[in-house]
Structure formats: C-alpha cells, structure tokens
C-alpha cells in the first residue's frame, strides 16, 4: 500500500497534481550532513542512518527460535529462511527508497521528530509516510495508515515476546538462568518466562513523558548495540561451524539449508558487524558526552566481560574443528519428524484449512491413483 502510494503520488496522483518524482534527491539532495560539513559530513550522515537502521534489521535470529516448536523444522524453517531475503529487499530497501522519494531530509516535521526530539503528539504522527501525506493535504489516509500500523506493531510485539521468552527458557535449561523458569504449562508454554518478559513492555510508557522519553532513547541505543553484537557472534559461530564441516569432510549441501558464498559471507559479517559495533557511538566523542558514550558502548564493554567471566568460572574451552559434534540432536529431530502424523503443508493449504477448506488424501483411493479429495467443512 505504501509503495503504491509512493508511486502514484510521485507521478502526479495527489491533490496538488505535482509530479515531483525524484525532486528531493536533487533538492536538498540524497544525503544529509551530520556533525561535519562537506563529503565527511555526508558520510557521517550515512553512518547515522546506518546506526538507526540497525535497530530495525532483525529476522533470521527469530526464525531459528521457531525451529524448536515447528512440526517439520527442516521443511518450514528452510522456507522461512528463504523469505528473509525478499523481506530485506522489499520492506527495508524499498521502504528506505520510498521514504527518500516522499520526504526531504530537511522537512521540519521530520527533523522535529527524529533529530531535535521537539515534535508534539505521538511518534506515529511523525512517520515519514504520515508526514508526506499531511504535506500533500491528504486527510483520511493517515488515519487508515495509523490503524494498519497497529497490526504491524502487534505482530512485532508478538514476535519479540515469543523470542525473549524462549531465549530465557533456553538459558534456564542450560543452567544460565533460574531453574524456576523451566516451568511449562501442559501446552508447553514456559509460563514464568512469559510473565518475566511481559514486565519489560511497560518501559514503553516512558515515551509518554517528555523527560522520561530520554531514558527510552538510551535503552534503545543499548538494545541496538546488543543486536549488532548478536549478529557479530552469529557470524563468528558460523565460521567455526564451516571450519568443522571442512575438517570432518561434511558436505554442507547435504543439509536442509546451507548458506551460499561461504565462508566469505561469514567473514564479511564478522568484519562489517565488528566495524559497526566499534564505531557505533563515535558521535559521543564529538564533543565528548559521557551519557551517550555509556549508552552506546555499555553492551560493547559488557559482552567481553560476561564472556570471559563464564569461561573462567565454568572453565569451558574452545572446541577444535575435529572435536565439534555436528550430529548433536539430529537423531532426536529425525524421530520427532517421523512421529508427526501430518505432512508438511504450504502456506495456502494451511490458510484454507484455517477458513474451513480442508484438503485431505484418501489413503485407499490414493493407492489406486485416485489423487486427492477436497472436503469443505
């Protein structure tokens, strides 16, 4: 819907009949200066956008968490991972291009919301898309967009709640969190993990106060750095995994899903994420700001400390490529998938089942080549 809005309005389909096209890419330009002036300032502007975008770029790590509760993880998780590439292309890259087309970086409402933090009203009214609609004197569509954004926010919140509770549950199983968090309901839901996780969304209420909203900004910076470190660790872990496969003579193509352009993509992740983590809070040095430094680098300082502490206290060691267990719980997964009565189904078959149209195989007739039977219930 937003992409259609961008295209229609840029070719003149707006109340002002202004075919503005890519005007904002020329005036004031595609890149804003930040901290410095000239080419260096524009590069710093790019870095500032990169830090902010890092907070929203998530996806693969949540797909892996679902594997523990999927009926056919080797089938469903593989398909889910493949959609990540399209998600990044369509939602992140195309969304960023649309924002650059619709709103110039020096738009007063945009600056007041995201730069000077002096905007009045809710953050949703400061969305670049909403700002563009109001600049074009479109009165009804912003309300529709805010209503649709509620569904997106609910989906994101549901994902984060699921991910956080399952991570906490996994930590308790490994002895890195209190044992009481292992408690699950009859349906398999880690109830205490969910309750602990649901306490943290209350921090969002800080946004309601002008002064306390700064605390939420600090928390966002800390979480962003944590996410960057997460991707760095994932890249390092993958390189260790790749080395183990090569040392033990295991062909990665025999796995249900394997990464392409490896190990080069893994090293790109290590170097790229490492550079971003180290330079993430460079703005706190120009001029020196103690508060910003610690909000940007708290996780960077804390992660090596906790890692080293666990290595020393638990006396764990790094595993060599030939020692790595690449089988792990594979037999358990094999028996689990064989015990599942239902066959893997595609999205549309699953969707039709939700609305009451069920597609089933008649075992007796299937052997006679009669195919499948469609039953509407």
TrEMBL record:
Q: Which UniProt keywords apply?
A: Membrane, Transmembrane, Transmembrane helix
Q: Where in the cell is it found?
A: Membrane
What residue ranges carry the coiled-coil annotation? none
Q: Which residues form the Amino acid permease/ SLC12A domain?
A: 3-317
Q: What is its main location?
A: membrane
Concerning Gene3D superfamilies, the annotation shows: Amino acid/polyamine transporter I
Name of this protein = Amino acid permease/ SLC12A domain-containing protein
Q: In its keyword annotation, does this UniProt entry include DNA repair?
A: no
Regions that span the bilayer: 84-105, 144-169, 189-209, 215-242, 263-283, 295-313
Membrane topology of this protein: Multi-pass membrane protein
The reply on keyword Transmembrane is yes
Task: Kindly give the PANTHER family that the UniProt entry links to this protein.
Answer: AMINO ACID PERMEASE (PTHR43341), AMINO ACID TRANSPORTER (EUROFUNG) (PTHR43341:SF6)
Top-level taxonomic group: Eukaryota
What organism does the record attribute this protein to? Answer: Aspergillus pseudoustus
């Amino acid at each position: 819907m937003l992409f259609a809005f961008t295209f229609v309005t840029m070719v003149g389909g707006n109340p002002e009949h202004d075919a503005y096209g890519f005007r904002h890419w020329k005036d004031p330009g595609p890149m804003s200066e930040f901290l410095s002036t000239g080419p260096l300032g524009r590069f710093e502007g790019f870095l500032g956008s990169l830090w902010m975008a890092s907070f929203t770029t998530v996806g693969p790590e949540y797909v892996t968490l679902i594997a523990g509760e999927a009926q056919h993880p080797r089938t469903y998780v593989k398909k889910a991972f493949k959609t990540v590439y399209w998600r990044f292309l369509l939602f992140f890259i195309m969304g960023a291009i649309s924002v650059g087309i619709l709103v110039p970086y020096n738009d007063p409402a945009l600056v007041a919301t995201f730069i000077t933090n002096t905007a009045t009203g809710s953050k949703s009214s400061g969305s670049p898309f909403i700002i563009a609609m109001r600049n074009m004197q479109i009165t009804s569509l912003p309300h529709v967009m805010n209503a649709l954004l509620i569904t997106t926010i609910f989906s994101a919140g549901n994902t984060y709640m699921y991910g956080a509770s399952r991570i906490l549950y996994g930590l308790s199983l490994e002895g890195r969190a209190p044992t009481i968090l292992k408690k699950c309901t009859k349906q398999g839901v880690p109830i205490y993990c969910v309750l602990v996780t649901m306490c943290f969304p209350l921090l969002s209420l800080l946004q309601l106060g002008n002064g306390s909203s700064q605390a939420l900004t600090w928390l966002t910076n800390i979480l962003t750095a944590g996410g960057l470190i997460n991707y760095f660790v994932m890249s390092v872990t993958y390189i260790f995994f790749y080395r183990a496969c090569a040392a033990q003579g295991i062909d990665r193509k025999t796995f249900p899903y394997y990464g392409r352009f490896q190990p080069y993509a893994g090293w790109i992740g290590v170097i790229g994420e490492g550079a971003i983590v180290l330079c993430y809070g460079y703005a706190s040095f120009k001029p020196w700001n103690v508060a910003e430094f610690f909000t940007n680098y708290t996780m960077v300082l804390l992660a090596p400390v906790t890692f080293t502490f666990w290595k020393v206290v638990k006396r764990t060691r790094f595993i060599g490529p030939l020692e790595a267990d690449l089988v792990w719980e594979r037999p358990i997964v094999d028996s689990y998938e064989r015990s599942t009565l239902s066959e893997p189904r595609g999205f549309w078959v699953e969707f039709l089942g939700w609305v009451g149209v069920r597609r089933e195989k008649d075992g007796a007739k299937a052997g006679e080549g009669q195919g499948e039977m469609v039953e509407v219930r």
